[in-house]
């Protein structure tokens, strides 16, 4: 699970072009949206595409995405349970 969390942090920084932050600075429980990393709705769309391409997970319900993308911990738990790749 730790390897998946590290992979997610690196993917976030790379995919979302987070120039002012390194993967090591992202805590497992840090909020990704709002007061946390400050991600926005465009970032959420990119995360949905990343889940599909990288892990074979298709999200169709925006409310579901809100819960999944809460933190690195919530993302990694969901991916570990639902990945097809």
TrEMBL record:
It comes from the Bacteria. InterPro entries: ACP-like_sf, PP-bd_ACP. This is Acyl carrier protein. Residues 2-83 form the Carrier domain. Pfam families: PP-binding.
